[in-house]
Design goal:
This protein is an alpha/beta fold. The protein has 19 helices and 16 strands. Helix 18 runs antiparallel to helix 19. The mean pLDDT is 94. The chain binds 5'-O-[(L-methionyl)-sulphamoyl]adenosine (MSP). 5'-O-[(L-methionyl)-sulphamoyl]adenosine (MSP) binds next to strand 1, helix 1, helix 7 and strand 12.
């Protein structure tokens, strides 16, 4: 089966920060897990380079928007690589291939009769690139997100007849209850739809920085339609062959601030272009530091590059999904980071791995003994794989991690219960010692295969040390002993302070 997963594409109007890395890491967990299941995976991320958010920042810096994009897009690419994202392509909306296909689709929507010329009058936030309704405005006609005062705009432009799709959208939500997850976000989107949809601008007349409207050279396509279409256009030119039939429709991972665009405008626009709507989407919350979400303009940014430098990217991924339940908002902090690193990564998992490898080395000449698995331990592992699969089918990343972490803890209890170092002193206990060491090696191998999407670097090292060459989930079934193992330096070394 094909699995196509995407992240939002990021505005090139500032340096990447952890809020951006978050979507990359989440989509990567899903992509890696699906690859382990043997699925045909395509994973896309990239940058959103047109529209006011970029044009205005370029103006502030005294450079052209293209120069700004050329400087910052590689930074986002680098960030994706640093957090371990295994994306198959990195799209830039300034790519030729993207622009051409955007025009094709927009033209089709026009030809299908869903576009008309009209006058827009209302509030516009250039930082969100969003037209705000009266009810969305903050006090004193401000943008509720950017806290800047908005001006009332009147302009002649092209409209997309969103209102015509109200019923079809309602039906979509009814027929596909998991189209938008988590549920509270689905309800939010559905009540927005039920509140009555108004047509939206499809073009901008006073902006030069965008994809030209194919039938009107004086206007550019409203950046949100150009941006949303990236998910579709990329498949057309990422490889020599067109991948659309192989991978479309996509599963989108996005942040809560862009729900309306993805859960309402996007499926309607696809319907208008007669393209299949997304397979689904998961909306995550914000990582907060103090009161606020991280943002360049608020100046409270936790730099993922610095964090990775100190803790490694696996630790960053682990921390974000463990500390904040995926889908909810949650606080993160450097102190919290260090604590989880010590107690969970270094102690629960790192020590378990070191001890297991060291005991097999010392007591059994670095070869996993042949034995039957300890029955009570095996019973606790029963069904875990199915539960993890089901959770990740729904992008329940934190719950899936929690499920596996329960097994890590169970293995630690098993070490304390069996005390292999005591068994080793007792010549008559060779059988029980074989059982304990075999069960530990096997348990560690299984949890590590299940942790691979979360901790890819660590898992790769540890699986190799355990003599497991294959990362596929089909390897989870019990394996006999006999493998040569290798001791490893600490997987999560003490933090230098
Ligand atoms: N360019 C648009 C998205 C177009 S998608 C077709 C955009 N870009 S953005 O760079 O401003 O934000 C991209 C994503 O980063 C959003 O989903 C947003 O929710 C996410 N985050 C930005 N700060 C965040 C946190 N502090 N925490 C979690 N995610 C947040 O919007």
């Amino acid at each position: 089966m094909a699995f196509y997963v995407t992240t939002p594409i990021y505005y090139v109007n500032g340096e990447p920060h952890l809020g951006h890395a978050y979507s990359d890491m989440a989509a990567d967990v899903l992509a890696r897990h699906m690859r382990q299941r043997g699925e045909d995976v395509f994973f896309l991320t990239g940058t959103d380079e047109f529209g006011e958010p970029v044009a205005q920042q370029a103006e502030r810096e005294g450079v052209t928007p293209r120069e700004l994009g050329d400087r910052l897009a590689p930074r986002f690419q680098e960030m994706a690589a640093k957090v371990g994202a295994s994306n198959d392509f990195f799209i830039r909306t300034t790519d030729e291939g993207h622009m051409r296909r955007v025009q094709e689709v927009v033209q089709r929507v026009y030809d299908n009769g869903h576009v008309y010329e009209g006058t827009y009058e209302g509030w516009y936030c250039p930082r969100c690139a969003d037209f705000k309704t009266e009810s969305e405005l903050g006090e004193g006609n401000t943008c509720p997100i950017h806290k800047i005062e908005l001006t009332r705009e009147t302009e002649q432009n092209w409209f997309f007849a969103l209102s015509k799709f109200q019923e079809r959208l309602e039906r979509l939500y009814e027929e596909r209850p998991d189209f938008v997850a988590p549920d509270f976000r689905r309800n939010e989107a559905l009540s927005f739809i039920k509140g009555g949809l108004q047509d939206v601008s499809l073009s901008r007349p006073n902006l030069k920085w965008g994809v030209p409207v194919p039938w009107d050279a004086d206007q550019v396509i409203y950046v949100w339609f150009d941006a949303l279409l990236n998910y579709y256009t990329a498949l057309g030119y990422a490889r020599d062959e067109d991948l659309t039939d192989r991978f479309w429709p996509a599963f989108h991972v996005i942040g809560k601030d862009i729900l309306k665009f993805h859960a309402v405008y996007w499926p309607a626009f696809l319907m208008a272009a007669e393209i299949e709507v997304p397979r689904g989407m998961f909306i995550h919350g914000y990582l907060l530091m103090g009161e606020h979400k991280m943002s360049k303009s608020l100046g409270n940014v936790l730099d993922p590059f610095e964090v990775i430098e100190r803790f490694g990217s696996d630790a960053l991924r682990f921390y974000c999904f463990r500390e904040v339940s995926f889908g909810r908002d949650g606080q993160i902090s450097t102190a919290g980071f260090e604590q989880r690193y010590e107690t969970e990564l270094a102690n629960d998992y790192g020590n378990l791995a070191s001890r297991t490898l060291a005991m097999i080395d010392r007591y059994r000449g670095a070869v996993v003994p042949e034995a039957e698995p300890a029955p009570d331990l095996a019973a606790d592992f029963d069904g875990a794989e199915e539960r993890v699969r089901a959770l990740l089918d729904g992008a329940r990343i934190s719950q899936a991690l929690d499920e596996v972490w329960g097994l890590v803890r169970r293995l630690n209890r098993y070490v304390e219960e069996t005390r292999p170092w005591d068994l080793a002193k007792d010549g008559a206990a060779a059988g029980p010692l074989d059982t304990a060491l075999y069960s530990l090696a096997e348990g560690l191998r299984v949890v590590t295969l299940l942790l691979l999407p979360f901790l890819p670097d660590t898992a790769e090292k540890l699986l190799a040390a355990l003599g497991e060459e294959d990362q596929d989930l089909s390897r989870l079934g019990a394996r006999g002993g006999g493998q040569k193992v290798e001791r490893l330096p600490p997987l999560f070394p003490k933090i230098e302070t």
